[in-house]
């Protein structure tokens, strides 16, 4: 397993882990910065201090109870549905591509794309505000038109790695896709 340090589009440190299971199977994982206890404590304290100020002014204990309840519910929602710690790409030349997002709460979301549906993996660019942002995406083959693209599946949407990291992942994916294209196709099981 090989790990390299990069930066995200916003400048946050990220790590790319590259694990080769076999010649036609690679796992690429981008891990973003972990949730900082300091920022979590600061946000919680700010909400609770504001609630305490309202409590002093209104002398209603429901304000404190509501602030605690809303903070806890908000934290659970943030950890379970928003904060992604790691995004992984498992490329298996003979089967397909598995995309996994691991949330801070431990929840994982996995999508599998069959290799027969994959047309290509490309680096695309988008203009956001006044910046050019690069992102990796999978082009899915259009069943009606073999030369067409039916869908574009963006990868690493949460970590948003910079171009140097995306090039590393792109090259790794292309090596496996090229092996699949040059491998002789068997006509059936004997």
Shape: elongated
**Strand line-up across the major sheet:** 1-2-3-4-5-6
Which segments are poorly predicted (pLDDT under 50) over 5 or more consecutive residues? 186-190
Structural classification: alpha+beta
Beta-strand fraction estimate: 35-45%
How would you concisely characterize the structure shown here?
The protein has 190 residues and is α+β, with helices and mostly antiparallel strands.
Can you walk through the features of this model?
By secondary structure, this protein is an alpha+beta fold. It is built from three helices and nine strands; from the N terminus they run βββααββββββα. The protein has a six-stranded antiparallel beta sheet with strand order 1-2-3-4-5-6. Strands 7-8-9 form a three-stranded antiparallel beta sheet, with helices on one face. α1 runs antiparallel to α2. The longest helix has 22 residues. It is elongated.
